Amino acid sequence: MARRIPAAKDEMSLPMIQRIMLFNGIDMEDVKSILACSKAEIVTYEKGEMIFSEGERPSNLPILLSGSVNVARNTYDGKRNILSVYERSGELFGYEKLLQNDARYGVFGQAQKKTRVLMIPKDFLNGTCERNCGFHSLLISNMLLIMATKTEALHGKLEIMTCGTLRQKIIKMIMLNSEDRNAPFIEMSRQEMADYLNVARPSLSRELMKMQSEGLIEASGKTIKILNLSESENVLK
After folding, report:
1. What is the pLDDT of residue 54?
2. pLDDT digits (tens, 9 = 90+) for 5-35
3. What is the phi/psi pair of residue 106, to 5°?
4. Which CATH class is domain 163-235?
5. Bridge partners, 185 (sequence order)
6. Alpha carbon 22 to its chain's center
């Protein structure tokens, strides 16, 4: 069962929260005021627990503090299609419907291990707070910038899915989701990758084995690394 505590009272988490891009340019005392004024909570989920469900109305802006979250949807034939995987502290997720009137989630968010999420109530983000705090507009500005960046990431997912072959999709996925451009790699289980690419896991495993035997990649556990960058770029041409 998810456990909730007021974010403003979690002194241990405050330094981590202040580093979140949403609070960029806001000092610690004002961050504490935001958390208290908004009645934000830190919610701890165990592995497999739903953070939000399909058909649910969004009531909070979720921000990952620690752990791992999959945002996915169930297809009509009963398969799970992972749209995004969130593992970096400070990432916003499940925000797309937040500011739309009477909107409902068309996806679900699920904790993949013990996960802590900062929940900021939607009502606080929709307008000014009762105290008319000066930092409120900066918070909203930061949120819009983050959402614009996230929209760009969704375009990246579209770029992956429009690749002609499974091999191209795998390479493009690794390149777009790696922070290291010179030695691209990702950490994702075979099932998560299959769900993300919307392919059968056996087909994915076979292609990964072929790519590894050809020296294109190295697959060890959940880590998949591109070894031959130049040849991988040729595959995408």
Report:
1. 92
2. 999 999 999 999 999 999 999 999 999 989 9
3. -100, 5
4. mainly alpha
5. 225
6. 15
The rounded distance, in Å, linking the Cα atoms of 187 and 203 is: 19
Q: What angle do CA 12, 17, 18 make, to 5 degrees?
A: 110
Q: Tell me, what amino acid is at 161?
A: M
Strand partners, 219: 224
The answer to whether residues 6 and 102 touch, using CB atoms and an 8 Å cutoff, is: no
In the chain, count of helices (H) and strands (E)?
A: 8, 11
pLDDT recorded at residue 110: 96
In sequence order, what E strands does 75-181 have? 80-86, 108-111, 115-121
pTM for this predicted structure = 0.69
Residue intervals of the chain classified under CATH 1.10.10.10 are 163-235
3-state secondary structure of 222: coil
Q: At what angle do helices 166-177 and 190-197 cross, to 10 degrees?
A: 110
* Alpha carbons 77 and 92: distance in angstroms, whole number: 29
d(CA 212, CA 89): 31
Q: Tokens 């409120």 — which residue? A: 136
The two structure tokens encoding residue 95: 């925000």
Largest CA distance in the chain: 63
For 76, the 3-state DSSP assignment is coil
Token code pair at residue 154: 């969704």
In 115-197, which ranges are E strands?
Answer: 115-121, 185-187
Could you tell me the CATH superfamily of domain 3-154? Jelly Rolls (2.60.120.10)
Q: Where in the chain is the domain with CATH 2.60.120.10?
A: 3-154
Per the CB < 8 A criterion, the answer to whether 2 and 73 are in contact is no
